[in-house]
């Protein structure tokens, strides 16, 4: 979890008022006034005292004061303190967990691809935010085996199984006809020379490793492997992310504003922004749960959003599960949902191996 360290020390009364303001703002999406806090929460303070404390919190940078309203709204700094120390501990009730488990277990034969898409839908429906799941990066994964299936006299299907359990398939066109028995021989030879190597190693050394095969007899298959090595053994999953939940996130009152509406549509259509931010988080954050609020996202297009992400694993490979939505969100519930779903996804993918 990202934490902002600074030299402030909020008093207990300031913490309580900040917590109540954020609670109310999350519930109503409207600026919160001192009279509202006084009526809603029995804290033994007059509206005037509460108003003074809110003014102090604004001066310290935890609250802001919209020009058109007498109430206050949280700033990025206010949300950060709330998430780090003031909100209720993340909790997901048993019934919600059962619904998640039932959906993930509905079809045990799901391919990895399908499971990631279903996970994204579950997370978006549960949180009413934009949900995303990145595919695992396989650049440093090790090859377990290659299978070659003859589709026709000039077409083959290459099935690449990675040691983590992931499977990739690529169809290749040959420039000459091939016999079934030649395919089996080349498959055996390739597995002897390449199994156990990282994709990056295979790309840089394949020509040397298979140079002594009888190229006259097996030339069409060997040639297509050499010509297609970047396609077969490149981390094509690095630019893949499933993003779902446009209908859910657009229900939020923040998107009644046309400009905000357009911004979220742009994010959904241009997934590169999301991928770039998630990759940066992976590289810079040691914790597998990361919460970034507003300008902490370091991309101007995301300055009005919060992102909550957690890693899931398939063997030694990692992907990311997460949500993105307005900064005004139920952090406790959503953090719990992201963590639980990421852990359950890891469990489901482990079963498939």
Automatic annotation (TrEMBL):
Alphabetical list of SUPFAM superfamilies matching this protein: GAF domain-like, Winged helix' DNA-binding domain
A GO BP entry: negative regulation of DNA-templated transcription
Superkingdom of origin: Bacteria
Known role: Negative regulator of class I heat shock genes (grpE-dnaK-dnaJ and groELS operons). Prevents heat-shock induction of these operons.
Family (UniProt): Belongs to the HrcA family.
UniProt xrefs under PANTHER family: HEAT-INDUCIBLE TRANSCRIPTION REPRESSOR HRCA
NCBIfam families: hrcA (TIGR00331)
Record-given protein name: Heat-inducible transcription repressor HrcA
Organism expressing this protein natively: Melioribacter roseus (strain DSM 23840 / JCM 17771 / VKM B-2668 / P3M-2)
């Amino acid at each position: 979890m990202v934490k902002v360290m600074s030299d402030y020390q909020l008093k207990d009364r300031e913490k309580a008022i900040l917590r109540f303001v954020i609670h109310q703002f999350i519930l109503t999406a409207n600026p919160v006034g001192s009279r509202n806090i006084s009526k809603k929460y029995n804290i033994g303070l007059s509206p005037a005292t509460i108003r003074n404390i809110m003014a102090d919190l604004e001066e310290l940078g935890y609250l802001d004061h919209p020009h058109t309203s007498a109430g206050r709204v949280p700033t990025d700094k206010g949300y950060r303190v709330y998430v780090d120390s003031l909100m209720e501990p993340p909790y997901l009730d048993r019934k919600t967990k059962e619904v998640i488990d039932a959906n993930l277990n509905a079809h045990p034969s799901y391919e990895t691809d399908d499971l990631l898409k279903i996970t994204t839908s579950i997370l978006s429906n549960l949180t009413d935010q934009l949900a995303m799941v990145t595919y695992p990066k396989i650049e440093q994964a090790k090859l377990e085996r290659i299978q070659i299936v003859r589709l026709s006299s000039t077409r083959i299907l290459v099935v690449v199984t990675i040691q983590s359990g992931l499977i990739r398939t690529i169809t290749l066109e040959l420039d000459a006809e091939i016999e079934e028995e030649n395919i089996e021989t080349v498959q055996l030879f390739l597995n002897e020379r390449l199994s156990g190597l990282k994709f990056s190693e295979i790309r840089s050394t394949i020509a040397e490793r298979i140079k002594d095969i009888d190229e006259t007899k097996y030339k069409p298959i060997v040639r297509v492997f050499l010509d297609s090595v970047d396609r077969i053994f490149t981390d094509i999953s690095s630019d893949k992310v499933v993003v779902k939940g446009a209908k859910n996130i657009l229900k939020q009152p923040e998107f009644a504003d046309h400009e905000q509406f357009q911004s979220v549509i742009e994010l959904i259509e241009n997934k590169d922004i999301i991928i770039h931010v998630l990759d940066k988080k992976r590289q810079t954050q040691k914790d597998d749960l990361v919460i970034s609020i507003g300008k902490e996202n370091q991309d101007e297009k995301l300055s009005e959003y919060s992102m909550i992400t957690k890693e899931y694993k398939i063997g030694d490979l990692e992907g990311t599960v997460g949500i993105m939505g307005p900064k005004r969100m139920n952090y406790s519930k959503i953090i719990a949902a992201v963590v639980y779903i990421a852990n359950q996804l890891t469990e489901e993918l482990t079963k498939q191996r």
